Amino acid sequence: MGTIEPVFAHLRHAKGLTRIHYRGRKKVAVIWKLWCIMHNIGKIVLYRPGYGTGGAVTG
User: Fold this and answer.
1) Confidence grade of residue 53 (pLDDT, cut at 50, 70, 90)
2) Which domain holds residue 44?
3) Measuring CA to CA, which residue among 57, 10, 58 is closest to residue 36?
4) Into how many domains does the chain fold?
5) Do 30 and 21 contact (CB within 8 A), yes or no?
6) In this structure, is residue 40 part of a structural domain?
7) In this structure, what DSSP letter does residue 22 have?
């Protein structure tokens, strides 16, 4: 079981999310979900099979 703190640290330091400039729970929730989607897509791209091998994935 992992911890959640590395996600916050990555979003803050690597992606530059230091502050959300919207007001209201609904607006902030939408922006936060978009940042989380961006983080998860980055992980999928990084860990997909064949990433960085220079060849096509078969099978």
Assistant:
1) low
2) 24-49
3) 10
4) 1
5) no
6) yes
7) -
Q: Is 38 within the bounds of a domain?
A: yes
First to last CA, the chain: 31
Structure tokens at 42: 């980055």
Q: How far is CA 18 from CA 12, 15, 34, 38, 56, in A?
A: 5, 9, 15, 15, 38
Q: Within a 13 Å sphere around the CA of 43, how many CA atoms are in the beta-carbon half?
A: 10
Which strand (E) or helix (H) includes residue 38?
Answer: helix 25-47
Q: How does residue 46 score in pLDDT terms, banded at 50, 70 and 90?
A: confident
Q: DSSP strand E in the chain: where?
A: none
Tokens of 44: 């999928």
Q: Say if residues 7 and 39 touch (Cβ distance below 8 Å).
A: yes
